[in-house]
User: Fold RagB/SusD domain-containing protein from Bacteroides thetaiotaomicron dnLKV9.
Amino acid sequence: MKKITKYIPTIILTLLCSCSDYLDIVPDNVTTLDIVFNNRNTAERYLANCYHFVPDHGSVKRIPGMGAGHECWFYTTNDSHFDNEVSFYIARGLQNIDAPYANYWDGEGGSNLPMFRAIRECNIFLDYVRDQHKVNDLTDSERKRWIAEVNVLKAYYHFFLFEHYGPIPIVDKALPVSTDPEGVKVTRMPVDQIVDYMVKLIDDSYKDLPPVITMEATEMGRLTQPAALALKAKILLWAASPLFNGNKDYANFRNEKGEPFINQEFSREKWVRTAEACKEAIESAETNGCQLYDCSMDMSYSQDLPEEIFYSMNIRQTVTERFNSELIWSVGKQGTNELQNLSMACIVPSLQQGSGNGQVTGSILQSRAAGVYAPTLETAEQFYSKNGVPIDEDKEWLTSGNYDNRYTTRQVTSADKYNMRTGWTTAVLHFNREPRFYGSLGFDGSTWYGNGRTDVNDLNYVDGKYGRNSGNKWGFNYSITGYFAKKVVYYQNAITQSSQVVYEYPFPIIRLGDLYLMYAESLNEATEGDNNVPEEVYTYLRKVRERSGLKKGVLGQTEDIGDVRVAWEKYSNDPTKPKTKDGMRSIIKQERKIELALEGHQYNDLRRWKDASKELSKSIKGWNVQGEIEEDFYKVTTLFVPRAFTTKDYLWPIKKQDLQVDDKLIQTYGW
Assistant:
């Protein structure tokens, strides 16, 4: 099997190639650390060590955002071919206090990365590099940059814990090895205090970071000013959101003094502060060359693509094109080899099981095109119609009966040949949708641009029914919903009869489209009154929507639907929705679900919005993938009925044993 990693070498990758061994051989004593920080080369290895703990954000198993929600589902938790006993166990309501899943507090439960150890490594690094008598061959500018990088990393590691646990301890200093047991005990701090601490780390450091990486061959992936400022904006977004801003559900979650961990008074000023931080981050990013990506920037033949494929490819390439213009920060390959293997459909005619002799075999299909990371029916329904409004609001869908009959079938004509295979019979739900729908999802009868075929008149396609090439043909490694996560699969991968090539890419931790939507959300929430939506809210939504093909003059559209006011007035049965704060809140939430689909955001967004109690208590549904013919396949099937998502599920529990070791710790509310 041939695997290619088409990826710019970085200092982080280079230095981390033996990082796990390095971490194992550095004992916690001053003598050895004095040697490590005696010269630039070994100190630089320790800098790489500090980056080493950044989680693989593209891991469907270890990152809760990728697998703990209802955006995608899996056919099993564990069999001899596939397992996900981490995030998927959380999705199934199995989180617990004895052995918590995705336990980043301790680095257990499948997380493999103890965040407090990451913070400790950062503190050790800072203690030594701040000392002007250490690392004597380090220049002053380099010393400042390294210190700034690790300060921002320390803020990031605190934030990663904060996202999951809420109130956490602040670990600002590395404790000496001689510290007694009582001295190493920590306490959880109030949310507002943690947020101020993380923000201060960034504010005190970001100006010493480079505005842009100029030495691309050796430094891509390292922190920049735009990345630090975007992280700050994300931290403040969480602090302003309903989960942590006046959340009365946690009124009894208090410290040993009886003080609430989460401020019980709502503060609009937190949204104002977030909007200012988002604007600062956007200006920094754009000033330094960051812009919304479109595939004409990298695909030399994109000018020849029909509009249907061009705009659907925009969203795929935004995620999978390495270090493209939209990426603000990512580190390493972020688990994208496995992610693509788990998302890829066995598409035809490129993938047909042969008899060996260099051809694709069953084992290759199982490992390289498993298709188990399966978007749910709810995910498919959340995308807009071709008119840029929700399908349950689109007057054309409602008056024609298409919405009520969306689970029935119809035959594909040549008018839809670039999105679906002509002559195929598929669900009404799959017709007349926006380009991001076709760029993000594969489904029975859909085309699949790339994977060895870029002739728009001879495209690969999905054959997803039972026993068919893209469907359940072995009883394992298949999509349980009938949908495939096309968005995260790079189009130049080539899983063909004679070659199996997967190009890894840096999965986005923060990208510009996310930042634009953060800004729109915070501006809307910062506004006083319900009828004073700032013009900039519409402006930044327009930027995201138009890049996706929702604009006048594209795909026959005669209205200026990049502007949500125009789209809703013309096509929605709720035409005044964009004119109110509440209406725009709903629109922005759906825009985030669509634009950032399959990127690990929705689960966390639902939590910070306090929408998870409703949304994650719904049944999981898909098509009947055991069906061999259209009449059987296109039946909505309930795959799982979850227990109710309650207040305690919003935040992670601390392992029970940790509470026994440290009696100053207080368990997360409800656990």
About this structure: Confidence is low (pLDDT under 50) at residues 1-27. The longest strand covers residues 636-640.
